[in-house]
Amino acid sequence: MKNKYLFLLLAFIFPMAIFAQTSPVQDGSVPKDAPVNVTITDFKKNALNNEIVVFRSEKNGKEFQGISDDYGKFSLRLPAGDKYEIFVLGFKDSTSLNVLDIPALQGKAYYRDPMIVDLQHQPSKTFVLDDCNFETGKATLEESSYNVLNELVAYLVRKDDERIELGGHTDNVGTAANNLKLSQDRANVVRDYLLSKGIAADRVFAKGYGMTQPIESNKTAEGRATNRRTEVKILE
Fold first, then answer.
1. 92-123: per-residue pLDDT in tens?
2. Into which CATH architecture does domain 3-122 fall?
3. Of 103, 105, 119, nearest to 38 (Cα)?
4. Going by fewer Cβ within 10 Å, which terminus of the chain is more open, N or C?
């Protein structure tokens, strides 16, 4: 997805590896990993639920992930002696936030207290369905469009508290009236597809904007192609 549609992210990580207390293990069984407690909120400190946070090992690329609960929290365990790049997954996007360092411990020492990772994340309120294309001058989806629509279905299943508007947009070829109708028809087609996959009707609204909201110049073929789009807006 184009950079202009990427959401803004900010992470605060408390380096508890410095403060994590370690103790000798009496029974000889030494945990090789560290407990990690994660909290994710927006910039107003409101908890964000159903957010997928990924920790990717710098050592071998292995990924560990968790999904936040209604309080914006989850816990997991990560192997010690590694650094982990942290991502929050959006719709078709993931942006690196920061790196969590979990130092290796010697002997029979182990991590007794959890590391604390506090994330602040501002989810994107709008994004474009790239590769959602229609036949020229029609409200008929091209076959290749179903991949991104199925990804949107999966996103809406996970974010089951979100309502969205599907905005249909055209270039400036043709009359304003015809473009307005075409954009509405195309938005309706996308909505119908989502509903056919089990998304509740009261969560999805369709609106055609015609050629009234270009995001690029209509003077070039590339600009017109960019303006022909289906845009998803997260409703409050």
1. 777 777 899 999 998 889 999 999 999 998 88
2. Sandwich (2.60)
3. 119
4. C
